[in-house]
Automatic annotation (TrEMBL):
Residues 46-92 form the TM2 domain. PANTHER family: BETA-AMYLOID BINDING PROTEIN-RELATED, TM2 DOMAIN-CONTAINING PROTEIN DDB_G0277895-RELATED. It holds the Pfam family TM2. Keywords: Membrane, Transmembrane, Transmembrane helix. It is found in: Membrane. The keyword Transmembrane applies. It comes from the Bacteria. This is TM2 domain-containing protein. It is a multi-pass membrane protein. Its main location: membrane.
């Protein structure tokens, strides 16, 4: 059972609990690999907050592009953050935007790891 704070000390709140649930069934080697890939791909909620604030000064939707929501990013850019209303809503919800993105990244990372282990098993069998 891997310790989440040993591998990912920057996590907090709901994200910490969720990732701890993922790491509980992993050994230390798997947890180290997961944390390395996850840390490289996750988005910090403070970065999302800063990018959302930049939306008030001409680049509305930049945070949506960073979160991989290209369509909403273009919509925010063309409508000035849906007349600032969408940007204000995102300012209030910046932590949940980051959390949802990071959960998606965690699932993608687990999928990559399982595909990698399946390929290794196939190579051993041949």
């Amino acid at each position: 059972m891997a310790n989440v704070l040993k591998h990912l000390p920057e996590l907090e709140g709901m994200e910490l609990g969720y990732i701890q649930g993922i790491l509980k069934d992993m050994n230390e080697e798997q947890a180290a690999l997961f944390s390395q890939v996850y840390r490289a791909r996750r988005k910090d909620s403070q970065m999302i907050l800063i990018l959302t604030l930049i939306g008030f000064f001409g680049f509305a939707g930049l945070h949506r592009f960073i979160l991989g929501q290209i369509g909403l990013g273009i919509l925010y850019l063309l409508t000035v953050g849906l007349c600032f209303i969408g940007t204000i809503v995102d300012l209030v919800n910046y932590k949940s935007l980051a959390y949802e993105f990071n959960i998606k990244v965690a699932h993608e990372t687990i999928s990559l790891m399982s595909m990698s282990s399946n390929l290794k098993q196939e190579d051993k069998n041949e």
